[in-house]
Input
Amino acid sequence: MSEPSPTVSFFRSLGLSEVLLKVLEGSTYKRPTPIQEQAIPAVLFGKDVLGIAKTGSGKTAAYVLPVLQQLLEARWNMQSRHVPVLVLVPTRELATQVEAVFNELSIGLPERVRTMAVFGGVSINPQMIGMQGVQVLIATPGRLLDLVDSKAVHLSEVKILVLDEADKVLDLGFKEEVDRVLSLLPRKRQNLLFSATLNAAVDAITQVVLHKPEVIQVTPEPQEVVLIQQRAFRVPQERKGPFLRYLIRSMDMRQVLVFTASTHAADHVAEKLRRNGIAAEATHGKKSNQARQQALADFKNGTLRVLVATDLLSRGIDIEFLPYVISYDLPRSPKDHVHRIGRTGRAERPGEAFTIVTPEDQPHFKVIQKKMKQWVTLESTDEIDLQGA
Output
């Protein structure tokens, strides 16, 4: 009799069933991350969970795996258009990403788990039609309430509520929508709240939503920070565009995520890069869903060299190994800066994060560094010849 694989052994100790262990054996998941090690047994035990861990730490699978097991074991008999599992997310990109994880981890299960992601910016009619028989509904708050108002879905029998990236849900001004969603749910349910940070808004909603939760807070190991090499460059405003192109070409960057402060800036930077022979696309909230998904797919598969994004989308871009991140404009908050550079240096592979700082930006950059408690030497670019860049 053959020995079980290390993957099976690692995850079996968490209480996962044999059918899920078999799925994991053929997946990209080789061993549980710290958040998965602590959250999976707690969710399986039926506890409410507050999980705080940085983006890219495996939070999604930490709830997807035990939720799938509960669906298979409980066999909830639901009325028409009543969903047992509701996952609230801040953006359509994260909705699509979570749906993909549910689909990946349910392949080969003895019973099909019907999962659906719904969000605004696309026609609501196909979503209304497709709601029949859905067991896991992943939704942005506004579109979810549109579907509720249209009587396409009912929330009165929800057994498990997940708030994924709760800090971002609340940061984006969804509190009123979230409050209304909560009012439509049954009082007796399991609540799982996952977030990259624990701020005042998250703490407040925790008090309302969670009942005697298992609190799991995973702090990054010191070596995780070392994986990201940070550099900052002092660049006059009029030289920013040429310097960006110089940086990409001189380092032969083949896959680089560039952050800008606005949708207009994202479009402008992407257009200037294309004019200068560098394949680039912008992705932001004003783009159609199809355009955003296509740009992200092209970026992931390597056919698109540069993806220019706003902070709104920073958490919806999940790439296991992204070598370069460039902050073309500084973010408004230090927290956003952490999330930007956190796109790289993942999966135990190194990455580089570059920040372009104008003379006018320097005081704000000092504030960001002070909040991060990380200091980066500001390098001069005056001697660099950008003629023709």
Notes: The chain has two domains: 6-217, 222-380. The CA atoms of residues 276 and 322 lie 23 Å apart.
